[in-house]
Request: fold
Amino acid sequence: MLLEANISVFSFIFGIPAREILEECREKGIVTIGTATPPDEAAALQEAGANAIAASGFEAGGHRGSFLRPAEDSLTGTLSLLPQVVDVVDVPVIARGE
Reply:
């Protein structure tokens, strides 16, 4: 349904969509934005083909988007997390949190 809706951006949290979905997004020109809480998630998202990373600090609130480790191990604040993510990826990084 998402791929047939003629959207221009697909933002996701809590992991990485199946490779086939991300490939079809690329084919349709849909920009993909994945959410990372520690830098290793950002690297995994870039490797999977995400066009941009939303670096989500602990200030973002209750539903932690952590997917490679427990949420309590991913409690870096946005201002500290942002440069760490920028150091490990080559795609645009968006600060998410307060």
